[in-house]
Amino acid sequence: MFARIGKKFREFVMRIGYVFGYIGRVMLSSMFFFKREKAAFKILVMQLYFTFVQALPLTVIMSLGLSSAIYLFGYSFLLSMGQTSLIYKLLVIIVMRELGPLLVAFMVTARSSTAIAIEIAGMVISHQIESYISVGIDPVGHLVAPRFIAVTISVFMLNLYFSLCGLLGPMLVSLILNPSNSYGYLDGIFNAVSMSTIFVSCIKSLLFGMVISISSTFYGFNVERASTEIPVAGIHAVGKGFAGILLVDIFVIALSLLF
Asked: Which residues lie closer than 8 Å to 17 by C-beta, 6 or more apart?
């Protein structure tokens, strides 16, 4: 029994070491990415198009719908207590700081993480990765680094659009339903937004993008030879991506409360 426990522990330590080694290699390759050939830049542009541009309309719709619902129900609830001035702080906390970055990260994970993992897993199964290595091309620098940069930038930019639309959208709803409540809306929002809120939101989106890209590429490479492993890689990438996002979110919230 002790031998089995020791074996499992050694495998766990080796696995953790492999994961951190992969993360370090991705970070290093990303730092020197802009010195690479034009083909890698094409991958970066295409990944930005798929992850950011194509996801932008859905992000805007989701942001407007969520923020409008929060404003309508929150304002009615706060009105019953005579605390309607708190609606601005409520919107900023939920839309910009907490729920916004999380929803954007979940959406990108659902859309892009599976696609990236399946694409790379298919390249491993079809021996394309071996072909890259045989001609002296680093697959991490050529395939992973542009996706790492593109997904991280995409999550960051989508979070900015989500926050902007989420904070300005309720003003349009208020203008339509009750114009008298819209006076002073922008002043209330600007007074409720703080630099710490903006900083936490930006840090979350950047870290979430890193988690999504690393999880999807890692499990894409983590296949053997059977084609049946390709969809499994996509499932693992999404599941582990969600778990990593939640852990990072808890970690950032804990740090923000401490400091």
From this structure: none
Q: What is the DSSP string of 193-226?
A: --HHHHHHHHHHHHHHHHHHHHHHHHHHHS--S-
Number of H helices, E strands in the chain: 12, 0
Could you identify the residue written with the tokens 């059977």? 226
Count of other CB atoms within 10 angstroms of residue 175: 14
Written as one letter, the residue type at 124 is V
Give the 3-state secondary structure of residue 59.
helix
| pLDDT tens across the length of the chain (259 residues) | 656 666 566 766 677 777 888 888 888 888 888 776 677 788 899 999 999 999 999 999 999 888 888 888 887 888 777 777 788 888 898 898 888 899 999 999 998 998 999 999 999 898 888 888 888 888 888 889 999 999 999 999 999 999 999 888 888 877 776 666 667 778 888 888 889 899 999 999 999 999 999 999 999 998 877 788 888 888 989 999 999 999 999 999 888 888 7
**What pTM was computed for the model?**
0.90
Q: What is the DSSP letter of 138?
A: -
Cα gap 75→193, rounded to integer Å: 18
